[in-house]
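Section 3.1: Structural characterization of target chains.
Under the original work plan, the team committed to producing a structural model for every single-chain target entering the pipeline before any wet-lab resources were allocated. The record below documents one such target. The sequence was received from the expression subgroup and is listed exactly as submitted; it comprises 305 residues.
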Amino acid sequence: MASISAWRSAGTSDLSVIGVILGTPAIVVRMTGRLAGKVAVVTGAGSRAEGIGNGKAASLLFAREGASVVCADQVAARAAETVDMIVAEGGKASVFECDVAHREGCQALAAAAVERYGKIDILQNNVGIPSFESLEEITEEAWDQVMGVNVRSMVLMAQAVVPHMPAGSGSIINISSIAGLRAYPPRSTAYTTSKTAVIGLTMALAGQLGNRRIRVNAIAPGQVFTPLVAERLDVPGRQRRATSGLIKDEGSAWDIGWAAVYLASDEARWVTGQVLTVDAGITITIPGNQYDPSEAARDLGTPRS
């Protein structure tokens, strides 16, 4: 049986261990029903390696909160792993394999969601790829690939999904990055541009869809630890990332997932066109400076109590 601590690390804080089912102790996740009756489409719902990525975390949390989830991924096996986890917890989910960088895949995904569940209330655009080419290194092909996956996919998914969203209950969540707010990483010409474009797209769609009460917001994750970054980080690098913000603790995909739950829920009914930055405060600090309130007070000549 999974331990309580293991389940908590998987984004669950309210647990109940009940009886014995067929001789096996069972842990049941209590759902608060924040998304009960809603249908969510999550792109990039699988993880490319062992662990929990942003799309998988959002899918699991949407389901735990009562939504039916279409888990879309370019690799069906990745999405199937997410669906298996949801179903094992008693949730509702299904797999759809497609490439959302092209119109045909997006239209087919939206049609499948409506055929299976009758409507679409939530779209989380999660697909994205990194890029580390400098201005001198970036090629036309590399530029087009990054913009196609990171930006065009979100435009095409919105085009496909919006006609099926009931007026008054739709929520589109676009995953950007702190790279869209800062020149970070320093050599990521196309990636930084694409994540800034996601923020611009979010505002544009919020303006166009507000009269239908379809909300459009973005999340800008900070240096969270996911399978995507794990493959290129050594132990010291991971430690530096984990302590780079004001909150000296490592962020995970669950932190991004819970932000998505809020934006998807009716609690955020009056929130649109916004960027929710989830980064332990790193974007409000001065690069290279360790933030120590007592030292800052001394530097500013402020009396310390």
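The first strand starts at residue 15 and ends at 21.
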